[in-house]
Amino acid sequence: MTPAVEVRNLTHYYLKGTENQVAAINNINLSVEKGETLGIIGHTGSGKSTLIAHFNGLLKPDEGEVLVDGKNIFESKETLRQSRFTLRQSRFKVGLCFQYPEYQLFEETVYKDIAFGPKNMKLPQEEIDRRVLTAAGMAGVRKENLEKSPFDLSGGEKRRAAIAGVMSMEPQVLVLDEPAAGLDPAGRRELINMIKNYRRATGCTVIIVSHSMEDIASVADRVCVLNKAEIAMLGTPKEVYTRDEELRSMGLNVPEITRIFIMLKKRGLDVPADVFTVDDAVASIRKLSERGKA
Ligand SMILES: Nc1ncnc2c1ncn2[C@@H]1O[C@H](COP(=O)(O)OP(=O)(O)OP(=O)(O)O)[C@@H](O)[C@H]1O
Ligand SMILES: [Mg+2]
How far apart are CA 44 and CA 200, in angstroms? Predict the structure, then answer.
């Protein structure tokens, strides 16, 4: 199957041509399958935001290429018009939600903000209405908030409205940069559940950047670890999180509960190493004590 997004030998420099030139991502090869949820983790400055900004053509590769649904998004150089067309198409296929997206709300009402993308796509009014309501429902924006000014919403509600504004474009790939940043633990959990539901309901590809290894473990099928502009690991949460010492050397901490279970396993206890949440831990301790009784 054609990958949803593929990058080949992708390199991006900032301050190119100056003595401060840095490769923010360096020779990245990555293939994101249709329907999968990929988590991207990495220490501050490892290149996460730079990488995902290439997925919808917001940044242009200095080297390498980006393919969306098999099409090179910067390919058609024959005519500028044609290449703009390709870029435009891929922008609609890949919906990118920046970190702290609520700062980009600007319309008079939440409704208008969520409708901005579909309107820009020149869809008929009826279809715009349908999309706004569907996206609001999926992102958990309450109906009574749709006619309010976005500035009258709480922080969490603003975040949801901003995410709904990307969902309403009905992208094939939803890319979220630190969607739960700055929320309290309950807010984080709700947001992660919302993303899981969205994925279940739409079957879309989801790419999510997060500092929280716990959030990523609970939502991602695969995890990509970026370290100093390069991919250091790529695999299932289990494959990646059991390399806890390497992760620590990259400034990443596996969830506390995972570390305890890895330690218990190393000491010879028959416990799984892929315990990422306290609920998982409770379940496996129960199993162990039942086995002990038998
Ligand atoms: N506009 C810019 N100009 C110059 N350097 C930049 C720019 N944006 C990012 N960088 C540098 O590129 C590298 C990668 O930055 P990037 O923002 O992609 O990292 P990140 O993994 O998203 O970090 P964070 O976790 O803090 O969001 C860093 O060294 C950063 O300082
Ligand atoms: Mg970033």
Answer: 30
Secondary structure (3-state) at 270: coil
d(CA 96, CA 170): 11
Residues with Cβ within 8 Å of 89's Cβ and at least 6 positions away in sequence, in order, are 71
Domains of the chain (ranges; CATH) run 5-236 (3.40.50.300)
Tens digit of pLDDT for each residue in 56-67? 999 999 999 999
Question: What tokens were used for 186?
Answer: 């309950």
Ligand 1 mutation pick, 15, 48, 52, 177, max ligand atoms within 8 A of CB: 48
Closest atom of ligand 1 relative to the 42 alpha carbon: 21
Neighbours of 244 (CB within 10 A): 18
Q: How far is the CA of 38 from the centre of ligand 1 (A)?
A: 20
Confidence of residue 79 (pLDDT cuts 50, 70, 90): very low
Task: Count each helix (H run) and each strand (E run) in the chain, helices first.
Answer: 11, 10
The set of residues, in sequence order, having a beta carbon less than 8 Å from that of 197 and lying 6+ positions away, is: 138
Give the residue whose CA is nearest to atom 25 of ligand 1: 44
Rounded to the nearest angstrom, the gap between the alpha carbon of residue 74 and the centroid of all alpha carbons in its chain is: 22
- pLDDT computed for residue 224 by the predictor: 98
For 7-51, write each residue's pLDDT tens digit: 999 999 999 999 999 999 999 999 999 999 999 999 999 999 999
Q: For CA atoms 106, 110, 114, 115, give the dihedral sign.
A: negative
